[in-house]
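pls read this protein.

:::
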Amino acid sequence: MKKYSIFIAAILVLFTLVGCSSVKDKEAQNLVREYETKLYHVDYETTYLDSENAIKRIEEYRNYFTEHGYTQFKSKRILLLPMTAAKNGKFNLELNDIKLKKYSEDKDKLLYDYDLAIKLSYADGTTSTITQYGQISLLKVNGEWKIDNDFVYLDDIIRKNLSVPQ
């Protein structure tokens, strides 16, 4: 009887740990999805790249990040990458899909590899889809998941419209 009690207790502990892990993943993944969807929702005709508008737009992202992450976001000009590419290439951007794959996990830290399927819509009505790859790290800060770093590998179309050497 004692063996069965220990076995049942072990099963309950296992389910509790798995349940906590999936809740943790879901919260973190929802944050990443919300952030990436906002980042890659760009209308080139209404995008203004002047410093006043850029500063205002960058501020809108503060709540997604840790202090370190927000400093990186600003200094690397992450927000301006899709906006500049869309403006120069004369296309709109919209996130179609995001695939997240957990790379590593600690108590208060998660690291995901991601693939973004991004739709490009041109003025002539044509569309295409590109894939952006990246890795994003999240930290738990005051009970909430925050992005600590977002490293993205630029697609050739985005790079071309940023005038970045290939």
